[in-house]
Amino acid sequence: MSIEQTDKIDFISISPDSEVVLTISDHLSWEEDEHLALLQGKINLYLGVIQSEQLLEVYPAAEEHPRVISVIMKFDPPEEAVTFLTQAMEVLADGGIGFRWEVVSDQ
Fold first, then answer.
1. Which of 5, 32, 39, 55 falls between 20 and 30 A from 73, CA-CA?
2. Domain extent listing, the chain
3. What's the CA gap between 50 and 46, in Å, rounded?
């Protein structure tokens, strides 16, 4: 699964901190024209799954755990993307949902 599959959740897990983590796997270069739009769409999908309680249908173990959306990226985001990610973190936090991102490169 990946960021390009905007109708699917890439990964769901429970962290050592007892959070339900919905992970977005982002392998795209930031030179891709639609990258930011794909990321926004994927975050919106995850938010909808959490807010509609559909999460509990697909992952019943999520019942008593705080929710976090995590983006694992292959490439460092440019300033415009960092601004978007920071705003997304603030909006999601207001709704009680955690948000984080991390760059994991094999270089």
1. 55
2. 11-103
3. 6
The CA distance from 37 to 43, in Å, is: 10
- Give domain 11-103's CATH architecture: 2-Layer Sandwich (3.30)
The answer to whether residues 25 and 3 touch, using CB atoms and an 8 Å cutoff, is: yes
CB 28 within 8 A of CB 74: yes
Mean pLDDT for back-to-back runs of 10 residues, the chain (107 residues): 87 94 95 91 95 90 93 95 96 96 84
Angle, vertex CA 13, rays to CA 7 and CA 18, nearest 5 = 135
Which pTM does this prediction carry?
0.93
Nearest to 13 by CA among 65, 51, 53: 65
Which residues are paired to 102 by β-bridges? 72
